[in-house]
Amino acid sequence: MGENQWLVVGLGNPGPDYAGNRHNVGAMVLTELAHRVSANFRNHRANAAVAEGRTTPGAPKLVLAKPNTYMNVSGGPVANLLKYYSIEPSHLIVVHDELDIPFDSIRLKNGGGHGGHNGLRDIIAATGTNDFLRVRVGIGRPPGRQPAADFVLRDFSSTERQTLPNTLSDAVDAVELVTTDGLTAAQLKFHTAS
After folding, report:
1. Which of 4, 13, 19, 173 has the fewest other C-beta atoms within 10 Å?
2. How many C-beta atoms surround the C-beta of residue 139 within 10 A?
3. How far apart are CA 49 and CA 47, in angstroms?
4. Does 191 qualify as catalytic in the annotation?
């Protein structure tokens, strides 16, 4: 319990039909992060795929999780994993898509509301707190009059997919920096990036 460890959750919907959706960018970031720390996901009784690793020897332990549930019921697995690993919500990082941030931009914050994001809404309800960190991966607003619900459940465009690997890498860098240097240092790097 005294070990410096973080629960990092990547939000998305399960199954191959959703794998390339904008709404699944949080899960995509976790896949990249697990690859970087040479960790493999395995099913956990908390109804999530979980991997554990460290970015470097002596760095904080990272518990990486992708809930096996649909986005709007992500809270149960997150609350169960916090309890199982004895991690406080202050050491929870949720990686998720964000409509109000331009595509290929990363923003970080602690606390706040759910902003209409059903995954965040359920995590707040299940954990009883909004006092956790968020790595918000910008997906931009839908074009024209396309409803936001349709937009987030569509795959990234071919143009976006060319840039997406860099975006995912930036989000992984942001998670790493939060866990080693703190939120302020990560914000200084990613909020001032051009």
Report:
1. 4
2. 26
3. 7
4. no
For the chain, give the number of residues. 194
Check pLDDT > 80 for residue 194: no
CATH number of the CATH domain containing 162: 3.40.50.1470
Q: What is the pLDDT of residues 70-92, one digit of tens each?
A: 999 999 999 999 999 999 999 99
- Active-site pick, 23, 91, 96, 117: 23
Confidence of residue 3 (pLDDT cuts 50, 70, 90): low
Residue 103 has a CB neighbour count (10 Å cut-off) of 19
Query: Whole domain around residue 69: which residue ranges?
Result: 5-191
Token pair of 135 as six digits: 């790595």
- In total, how many domains does the chain have? 1
- Cβ(30)–Cβ(95) under 8 Å? yes
Residues paired with 162 in a beta bridge: none
- Which DSSP string do the residues of 104-162 spell out, in sequence order? T-EEEEES---TT-HHHHHHHHHHT---SEEEEEE--PPSTT--HHHHHTSBPPHHHHH
